[in-house]
Structures are given as C-alpha cells and as structure tokens.
Amino acid sequence: MIKPDRTRTPLWLVAWVALLLLACVGVLRSVGAYPRWDFLGLLALAGAGAVAWWVRVRGGGVGAGRPRRGWWPARRQAVAYLGPGLAGTAALVLTLSVTSASEQQQAILSEGFETSRVQILSVEDVERVDSKQLTRYYSKATVALPEGEQPASATGDLVTARPPAPGDTTWALHAPDDPSLGVILGSRSEVDALTGGPLPLNVLWTVLFPLLLFAGLGVHEFRQPSPRKRLTGWCASGGCASVPLRVGSVSAGRYWIRAPKTRSGYRRSDVRPALVLTSQGGNRVSFFVERCLPPDALASDLGAAPGRLYWPTGEADGPSELGVPAVLLLDDGRYLYGTVPASGLGGDREGVVRHEHVPEDIDRFRAVGPYTVHRPGLHRPGVAGAVLGFGCAVLLATGLGSGGADWLLTPLLVLLFAAPATGQWLTARNRTRALHALREETDGFDPADPERVAR
User: How confident is the model at residue 388 (pLDDT cuts 50, 70, 90)?
Assistant: First the structure.
C-alpha cells in the first residue's frame, strides 16, 4: 500500500475558496477604485494555496490522501468541472469590473459623485441592434440635471430595451463639482453598480452561468453508486457474474461504446489506461480505468494483487469489442470501477460464477488509491497556462487595463481566458499521446474503427 499525503486537499481547497470569495466580492461590489486591493488580496491567497499544493505534488510519491469508500476518480472529475467553473466565474467578474471602470467613471468617483433620476430632453443617433434573445437601442440622450447645477443639461450614451423618447426618465451618474466630466446614463441597477454596488440582475445570471453549468456536471459525476448498489442493480436487472483474476501488468487501449447516431451504432472510445488481468489458465482481460488514473501508480501499488471481476451478464451480449462496465474486487479489500471488452467475458471461461445476490462483505471494500494524478511532464502546459492567466488577472486587478487603456486591456482579457484553456487542451493531448505510446509498447487492446467494419 502507498503512503498517503493528506496535506494536499486543504491546499487546493484554499485556492478554490479564494476564487469563490473573489467572485462573491465582485458580484457585491462590481466596480471600485483601482488598484482593487480586495481582488489582489484574494488572488494572493489563491496563488499561495496553488503554489503550496504544486510544491507538495512535485515532492514525490503517488499518495494523495486516506483510503476512501467512494470512487474518488469520479469525485476528482467533479472537482475538475468545479475548478473551471469557479475560475471562469472569477474571470468574468474581473472582466466586467475592469471594462466598466472607464476613465470617465473613475474621474467622476474621484471628484465626488451623485446618482440622480433625470428626464430625457432629446434623443439623437438611435440605433437598433437585434440579437437572438433581445433587442437593444443605442442612442445619445441629452438629460436635464438636478435643479441648481450648471450647466442645466448634459449628453451621454444610453442603452435601453425600447426606443427612448423625450420625457422618459433614466438614471445618471455625474459629478456636481466638475460638470466637465459629463454624465453616465443607465438603469438604476447599472448606475449603482458603477458606484460600488452589486451587479445588475440580468448581468448576474450571465456571470453565474459557467459556475452553474460546471457545478451541474460536477454533481452528475460525483454521484457514483457504491459497489453494493452497482452490483445489486446488476443482479436485479439481468444477472451478475464473476471470475477470479490476478493483476498482471499495466497497458492502455480502446474499446467500442454505443453510439446510436452513427451508421454502425458504435464508435471507439478515447484511449485509456488498462490493467491486464490474467486467470490461472493464462487468459487475459483488459480492464480499462479512468484516464486520470496514472499507470505508474497503478503498477507500483497493485503489483500482482488477486481478486474477482464482476460484470452484468445482460450487457455482455454484443460485439466482442463492446465495452462492458465491471467492478474489480481485490482480495485485500480494495476495488476499482472500469470497463472490459465483451470478448473477455465468455460464458465458458473457467471459474465463472453466476450471482443472484451481492457478496456479504461488500461494504468492507475501499477504492484503490487515491493517487496524485498530476505528472510534471504531462501537465506542464496546463501549469504554464494557469500561471499566465493568473498573471493577467493580477495585472487587471491593479488597474493596468482600466481607465481607457484599450490597447492593453484587450490582450490581457484574451490571455486571461485563452491561456488556461489552451494549457488544458495541450495537457489532454499530452496524456493521449503518452497513453498511445504505452498501448504500442504493451500491445494493448485496440479494435478496428466500427465505421470501417460496417462498410
């Protein structure tokens, strides 16, 4: 058994909680004077947690925590969904804060501001812009300022949901002590947001969308049934069978999965790590596991561990390349979820036992690992992209792109979103290439493309 390191989870939790707090602060106080020390403080906390976690990961070993009853790779995938959701929400909040902090708005706030409900005197240059969801009218409106101010009127840009007309009212942000700064027009919530208030409700839903989307995906991945529930479902729906096997080696490969919209009805899965299980008679079965499980950790931790492979007999009736869900229960009290090709589950295999009930001691089993899934060589692009995106966030929080510096704002915003996304894409490609190389070295299971077979 590997020696676990239980200090890593709190470290990345610090980083994610800091990003969540940054998003909350940005929602409640969307615009403020730059530099935004509240943003910079939370970014420093997030960076410290991420760096400390990275140092612990690079310290060596494959342990990542105590043995767990639940299938932690699925929960790790849930975290992998929640992470981009939190980071994307924080980045959107920061983007809205910076883009709203115009040079005019910053000057008005520094001179002493007022927000007033004003009447439109005249409207010019009305332009209608249609989109799939709504219609917006962009115009230049002259409004009457509160009584006693000189000049008595001011002109500003106005965006409304219906054509503006003289006599309508709107809200204005202006500086009574310096009329030369002009006026910023908008709805009450938009003007309040520019003075340090919360985001308008219509903008808030846009900001929360990535968090809600990725949170939903994470919850779906998190809800993985226990071995007892999984085997009970198989026994109730068509039968369950098992065979004694022993872990032989580690490989990689692919199998067929159902794809009703294709001509053949199947397609090949992405390349995955696999345990090569062997029986006493010398038969071999490829047991495919989650892509995040590192083959080197599996090889060093499992060795030649014996166990029993369980699968639903009702799903094994199909092409020999079709992947069938399976559970491997090791004799030492650990388990793995995975997929095996139907060709490795022949009913005449020696030692196959049919089950109507789950084993009585099923509740004693714990998932293998957990393992540290970070590998410096594979994840280098992801780390570089995250560092570059984090650096852009720090620069934006200092106000480097605000105050009318559009030439600098645009590249910073592009890098803020594009650098982490590109890094994750390159990391996934590195993992795929490494698994393909392992498949070729070990002659892993890799059936032909079902579309070619169907021709």
Answer: very high
- Cα gap 323→272, rounded to integer Å: 12
Helices 72-100 and 406-442, axial angle in degrees (round to 10): 160
Q: Which residues contact 142 (CB under 8 A, 6 or more apart)?
A: 120, 121, 122, 123, 124, 153, 154, 155
**Is the CA virtual torsion 221, 225, 226, 230 positive or negative?**
negative
- pLDDT tens string 312-367: 887 666 677 888 888 888 888 888 888 888 877 765 566 677 776 777 778 888 88
The stretch 379-387 carries a mean pLDDT of: 88
**Are the C-beta atoms of residues 182 and 104 closer than 8 Å to each other?**
yes
Q: What share of the chain is helix, strand, coil (3-state, %, to 5)?
A: 45, 25, 30
Give the distance, in angstroms, between the CA of residue 100 and the centroid of all CA atoms in the same chain.
Answer: 26
Listed in order, strand segments (DSSP E) in 103-181 are 114-130, 135-144, 153-160, 169-174
Q: Is the pTM of this model over 0.70?
A: yes
pLDDT exceeds cutoff 80 at 168: yes
The helix (run of H) or strand (run of E) holding residue 374 is: none
Which residues, 6 or more positions from 433, have their beta carbon under 8 angstroms from its beta carbon? Answer: none
> For 301, what's the count of Cα atoms within 13 Å in the CB-facing half-sphere?
27
Distance separating alpha carbons of residues 57 and 63, to the nearest angstrom: 9
Give CA–CA dist 286/300, Å, rounded.
18
Largest CA distance in the chain: 98
Asked if residue 397 has pLDDT above 70, the reply is yes
Residue 344 per-residue DSSP state:
G
- Please check whether residue 175 is in contact with residue 181, taking contact to mean a CB–CB distance below 8 angstroms: yes
Cβ atoms of 286 and 256 within 8 Å: the answer is no
Count, in order, helices (H) and strands (E) of the chain.
11, 15
Q: Measure the CA–CA gap between 50 and 11, rounded to whole angstroms.
A: 7
**Separation CA 180–CA 150 (nearest Å):** 10
